[in-house]
Amino acid sequence: MKSRSILIFAKEPRPGFVKTRMCPPWSPLQAAELSLCFIRDTLLAASRVQDASPYLFVDPPEAISFFRDIAPAGFVIIPQQGDGFTERCAHSVKEAFRRGHTEIVQIGTDTPQIRAEHIEAAFGLLVEYNIGFGPTEDGGYYLLSLSRPAIEIYDGVVMGRDTVGKKMLANARRLGLRIKILDEWIDADTHADLSALHADPEVTLGRNTRDYLLSRPGP
């Protein structure tokens, strides 16, 4: 059993189910194709991290076969469990520690700029800190690393609101955790978000996303 685990959340990229805030100007089909690129880039980044067990928590449960076909070798694919996304995030942490892992990095698939080195750094900071937290401009988070199963950080958190990050950090402080706040990122929820990332010279998008945008320069 490897001590480190990577917990990734993904929704099946079908039209009308994902990236709906991209539409318009993107069509539902284009948004789904773009979502698939984000997923592939995230899985590729995770697969390049050394000495870590990658888990993919998927929605809906019947999409497991789809994700088995696209995930690199070594991924454990599990249906998301919980009544809402907050519960699902908490469950993933609890499950990883239950399986014997002692460090986790949790990420979604809305940041196609993520690379293996970002995940490695999130594990590395756990030598000194209990939690690494990567905030997003909209008040959420793109990355969470933990060295203990502190699922209480999700207490009272309502996903999708601009208070998510503040509430999680307040919970972490209440629990007495040593916190490292990472650089703020944009997660690509809207066309404006994606345009900002694509135009930023300091951001390197994943290969699949980059190639898709080059082949289809605009919606």
Key attributes of the depicted protein:
about 220 residues, alpha/beta, seven-stranded mixed beta sheet, 7 helices, 7 strands
CATH class equals: Alpha Beta
The number of distinct structural domains comes to 1
> Which consecutive residue ranges, at least 5 long each, have pLDDT under 50?
none
Average pLDDT value?
96
Q: For the CA atoms, what is the radius of gyration?
A: 16 Å
The CATH homologous superfamily is termed Spore Coat Polysaccharide Biosynthesis Protein SpsA, Chain A
Tally of separate helices: 7
Instruction: Compute the number of strand runs.
Output: 7
Overview of the structural elements:
The protein has a seven-stranded mixed beta sheet with strand order 3-2-1-4-6-5-7, with helices on both faces. The protein contains seven helices and seven strands, in the order E-H-E-H-E-H-E-H-E-E-H-E-H-H. The mean pLDDT is 96. Strand 1 (4-11), helix 1 and strand 2 (52-59) form a beta-alpha-beta unit. The protein has a single domain, classed as Spore Coat Polysaccharide Biosynthesis Protein SpsA, Chain A. With 219 residues, the protein is α/β, with parallel strands linked by helices.
